[in-house]
Amino acid sequence: MMNIPAFLTEKLTAQVGEETARRIFAGFEAKRKTTLRVNRLKAEPMQILKALADAGLSAQRVPWSGDALILDHADDGAVAALPMFESGEIYMQSLSSMIPPLVLGAQPEENILDMAAAPGGKTTQIAALTGGRAMITACERNKMRAERLEYNVKKQGANRVTVMNMDARQLDDLFAFDRVLLDAPCSGSGTVTEGSRGQFSREYLDRTVKMQKTLLDKAIRLLKPGHEMVYSTCSVLREENEDVVAAALKKGGVELVPIDTGAFEGVPLLPTKLEGVMCVCPDEWYEGFFVAKLRKKAKK
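Structure (tokenized):
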């Protein structure tokens, strides 16, 4: 039995009730499958499926993405040893973290901001989804993580990504983006595993929520009127999710764009207080994750 932090156990039980909380805890304990994304800037899914089969690895696809693959009997080490990994034709990425870029819906030639981009999975996914034709600014305030981001961007062939080693909160408000992805720093309450380093205390959560609200306010300022953004976390705590979004909605500058959860067939969902958002329940395929889409109101 995994030792789940008492603070998190109490929070989730109070939030969703004992039955759903037990489902989340079972998801924490499940051994998660190795998943990867085919990088369409360099390869096609059928080509990768054949190469995997030739390497003695079997994979299955998910109904909601042509690029996502789940490996049946292989760990991260086996994938990292493959030539296709070294060449950047595939990228190891959790299924849940592939959802925000799909919800964002970026288009070629748009100007996109990824506010907390390292290690680059979502950044390079956006690049691939736009055929490498969107202009992407990827911010990361930590120097070592920014270097890792730069490495992955180059390896994936995402040539129109500009990496900025800076806190996105410091960006000049004169910038204006067609779309913004804010995958906000969080407690990691959706990705608890044995030995995970998630921090769970009242003080830490309060500090994190304050930062999330500041980042979201900044994202809204940088977004062009009438345009859309995505707010996401790898948390299942409402304080970091619906409550942060609700605080932004209350200020009146944005409106919620309901996510079509039917487009994500098979994704296990948790109940949400706010209609139109999605919170993914952890299990053997998925990490706990939250996604909301917002539109900045056009100026009258």
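The first helix runs from residue 6 to 16. The first strand starts at residue 35 and ends at 38.
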